[in-house]
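**User:**
Everyone, produce one record:

**Assistant:**
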Amino acid sequence: MPVANLKHGALEFAYEDSGPLGGAYTTLVMVHGTGFHAGIFGPMMPFAAENGVRLILVNRRDYPGSTPFSDAELADLGSPDPATRANALAQQGTDIGLFLAWLVREARIPPVRTARDGTQRGGIALVAWSLAHTALAGLLAHAHALPADARAVLGRCLRAYCIFDAPHVSFGLPTLSKYHPLVDPTHPMAERVARFHSWVSTYYTHSDRARKTHSPALLDTTPLPHPAPPCARRATLDAMSSADLEAVSWPGPIQGSEALLHGMPLEIALANTRRMLFSADATRALPDCKVVVIWGENTLWEMAGAAWAVERLYQEREDAGEVGRTLEVVEMPGANHFPHWDEPEAMVQFLACVV
């Protein structure tokens, strides 16, 4: 994998690149969630060029080829001092911003061009999948803190930040249920992983009323039996071959940096959500970057409920006249938590349309 060298070698991000296209094409920068490296997006690559997009798949820190967290950085991410922890989290977003600015310069990403009818071509859409949003939220929440040169580059090129199927904790919002397979003490860790795979990648059916009203209270949060019951389509991770699953998995950080991100105090993550959407300073720093929150029609209740809760928070502030940045909340039809693996062509086409 190519590597972006930042901060005079102190920070590196490994990435895969589908390659440049002619004209003003859009670049989708995909950032993975917990326990999977960028290879989880690999099936999307063959469909990039034919749909007029360039795909960049990035490995977050602690994942192959990218800089591991130092002991001091991990201590700050888990610090008992809220200010220290908040600053450490904000730095993760800033570092992604530095990577994007480097990418624009080194990979010659074309800037955003807006036609008379308002349609846009060119530029970058950053896509954070699942828990990646916890780490990336600081980019827009603290956009005014970016170095001036990086901010100028991103001001010309960063057109959208897409949050795909992120959990409540990433937004700093209380979850609908305290159940999570990975922290279920009634089962040994090996069994918890298998249960998590089924739970997170099953195709769920939510009631028509829940989907119509976007009411989290109408979602069924009952823990999924294990093995998962038969449904129209088998859970993604249960259907994958052991070789494929091993090839895209990277479990090492789950009990380290990822545990610290998942356990981030809600008040710190919520502050990032509020700054990202409502801060005048952050909005002025990157005024043309919209936020798109995406949830899958058949994703688990945790992700659908989180998207709806953010939508409600935004509407409440909008009614009070306090909104800064544009927010769109969009459903991906037929998608569970892994459409990039199960339906990679549809995923590319969907993202190309919503950004």
